[in-house]
Design a protein that fits this description.
Helix 1 runs antiparallel to helix 2. This protein has 67 residues and is of the alpha+beta class. The chain has a three-stranded mixed beta sheet with strand order 1-2-3, with helices on one face. The relative contact order is 0.22. Strand 1, helix 1 and strand 2 form a beta-alpha-beta unit. It is built from two helices and three strands.
Length: 67
């Protein structure tokens, strides 16, 4: 079975303000995790490969907090 990979990309957040971009990405991370999707995160030069689970969610949220 092939799983869908979702990329959450700051450049494609749909908003111009950096703080709003991070807020939207945070919501997307929480929603993707809730739905059991494999998701990756792209923040400027940082790229976290698609995965899922509590450790992956924490890593993504931490990257957003430090951005």
């Amino acid at each position: 079975m092939q799983r869908f990979e979702l990329w959450l990309d700051q450049r494609h957040s749909g908003v111009a303000d950096p703080e709003q971009q991070l807020s939207r990405l945070c919501a997307w991370v929480l929603r993707a995790e809730q739905q059991g999707l494999d998701y990756g995160l792209r923040l400027n030069a940082l790229e976290i490969k698609p995965a899922s689970g509590e450790a992956h969610k924490k890593r993504c949220l931490q990257a957003l907090a430090l951005a």
